[in-house]
Automatic annotation (TrEMBL):
This is PEPxxWA-CTERM sorting domain-containing protein. It comes from Sphingomonas longa. NCBIfam families: PEP_CTERM, PEPxxWA-CTERM. The keyword Signal applies. Coiled coil: none annotated. InterPro entries: Ice-binding_C. The lineage of its organism: Bacteria, Pseudomonadati, Pseudomonadota, Alphaproteobacteria, Sphingomonadales. The keyword Chaperone does not apply. It comes from the Bacteria. Residues 160-185 form the Ice-binding protein C-terminal domain. Residues 1-20 form the signal peptide. Keywords: Signal.
Length: 193
């Protein structure tokens, strides 16, 4: 099967259009935090809404605590702040879910291990959904949707991808070590007593 230059250009143009359309729709802002909550609480503000994460050191009742102010809210189940586990699939936060404000420090049950927490910033210009991602007492990442009333899908920060030059140096180094090991002659003398 042969592809003409025209069909390749048409496919490339349609791909670029789809990418541009999806980018214009909603672009979340995801920030790597890395705050150790066991040493001190961490407060951040999005669109004027305030969120404070801390740690109470209680493993079974939930080591991570949260308090909110100025329109900040966290996703709830049965009126309590909720934790979602990343190994149970993709987690999305948006309209139709339960959120509540917590003006005083409140423990988030089952927040040991890796967790997502749904966040909502209620402002005069709209409602913005976000998430926080933690590992035990470390607040790893926060993210917020930039479009009002748009659902956000919780994702972790992607690790750095090595550049091609880094890969080339690594492969070259492994090859040189292998070549040196192959050329090295070891003389072994066996003697019997």
């Amino acid at each position: 099967m042969t592809l003409s230059a025209k069909s390749i250009m048409l496919a490339a143009a349609s791909t670029m259009f789809v990418m541009a359309a999806s980018t214009a729709a909603a672009t979340p802002i995801i920030t790597n935090i890395g705050a150790d909550l066991s040493t001190s609480p961490y407060t951040f503000t999005y669109m004027g809404s305030s969120f404070t994460f801390g740690s109470n050191g209680q493993l079974f009742t939930g080591p991570i605590t949260v308090s909110t102010a100025n329109g900040g809210e966290i996703n709830t189940t049965f009126g309590e702040p909720s934790a979602y586990f990343p190994d149970r699939g993709t987690v999305s936060f948006g309209p139709g879910m339960n959120f509540a404000a917590f003006p005083t420090e409140t423990a988030i049950r089952f927040s040991n291990g890796e967790n997502y927490f749904g966040l909502r910033a209620v402002t005069n210009t709209g409602t913005f959904y976000g998430f926080a991602y933690s590992s035990d007492n470390i607040l790893n990442t926060i993210g917020f949707e930039t479009v009002a009333d748009a659902t956000i899908t919780a994702t972790t920060m992607a690790g750095a991808v090595p550049e091609p030059a880094t890969w080339a140096m690594m492969i070259g180094g492994i090859g040189m070590v292998g070549g040196a090991m192959r050329r090295r002659r070891v003389s072994t003398k066996v003697s019997f007593a």
